[in-house]
Amino acid sequence: MKLLILCSNIREAQGIIDWLQDGIPFDSTLKSLFHQTPSSYYAVQKLEMEIELVITGNTMLDVAFQLGRILQCKKFHLVLQLGLCSAYDETLQLGDLVNVINDKPGDVGVLAEESLQDAYSSSIYHINDVPHVKGGFINFTNAYFNALLPIRKVAAITVNMLNIDCPSIAFRQKQFNVHIETANGLGCTYACLYQKQPFYQLRSISRILYHAKVDEIKAIESLTTHALDLLKKIA
């Protein structure tokens, strides 16, 4: 099995990188893409899988660029994007793991008179254009489905400006009717849907927006624990 893991930064990826240390390094066609930044790329054989891990950077632009050029060179049985997120849904708790199956552009659009016409009402995006699926950026991947059954499915928005302001929180929740927000999820979703690459976007809750609760350490620990358990199940 060929598996690609995407993480935004070293802090979120460190536990998985540590776990990979006793694997067997292998040469991949992707190695040349990261020769200038070798610390952002790992290729290891472990659990009878070829696992490649890439530190993409934190923004949607970073993820879309890195994943776009990767998928031009190589396809995988599965891509896993692992990261943190902020929760709108008050039933979610710090450290909960969620599976994003519907992603939306949260602050792409036209700003006029202190209101935002979103990407669809302003005709920047059209729901029938590639790579939309069923009118949205929806992930229908069902590979290794039994291993993901316990993980709650959610809808997300991807935003360039993360949310800490109460009026803005209420506005976004009402407008988009989503559970979480991320800074880069749509970068992965868009590229994978466009390339017809099976993928999952898994997120750990690091912030509860309405209650201003934050615990990144707990969220990263939970993400690492769940990710390693999942890797063992799908191997």
What descriptive keywords fit this protein?
235 residues, alpha/beta, Rossmann fold, two-stranded antiparallel sheet
Task: Offer a quick outline of the entry.
The chain is α/β, with parallel strands linked by helices and 235 residues long.
Q: Can you describe what's shown?
A:
With about 240 residues, the chain is of the alpha/beta class. It has one domain: 3-Layer(aba) Sandwich (Rossmann fold), CATH 3.40.50. It has helices at about 10-20, 60-75, 145-150, 165-175, 185-195, 215-235, and strands at about 1-5, 25, 40-45, 50-55, 80-85, 95-105, 110, 115-120, 135-140, 150-160, 180, 200-210, 215. The protein has a five-stranded mixed beta barrel. Strands 7-8 form a two-stranded antiparallel ribbon. A hairpin with a 2-residue loop joins strand 7 and strand 8. Helix 1 (about 10-20) runs parallel beside helix 6 (about 215-235) and helix 2 packs parallel to helix 5.
CATH homologous superfamily identity = Nucleoside phosphorylase domain
Strand order of the largest sheet: 5-11-10-6-12
Number of DSSP-assigned strands = 13
Structural class by helix and strand composition: alpha/beta
Q: Overall pLDDT, averaged?
A: 92
The ordered H/E elements are EHEEEHEEEEEHEHEHEEH
**Biggest sheet details:** 5 strands, mixed, barrel
Q: Low-confidence parts lasting 5 or more residues at pLDDT below 50?
A: none
Please identify the top-level CATH class. Answer: Alpha Beta
Give the count of structural domains. 1
CATH topology: Rossmann fold
| Terminal residue distance | 8 Å
Tally of contiguous helical segments: 6
Please state the overall shape, judged from the principal axes of the Cα atoms: globular
CATH architecture: 3-Layer(aba) Sandwich
Radius of gyration: 17 Å
Helix percent reads 25-40%
> Strand portion, in percent?
25-35%
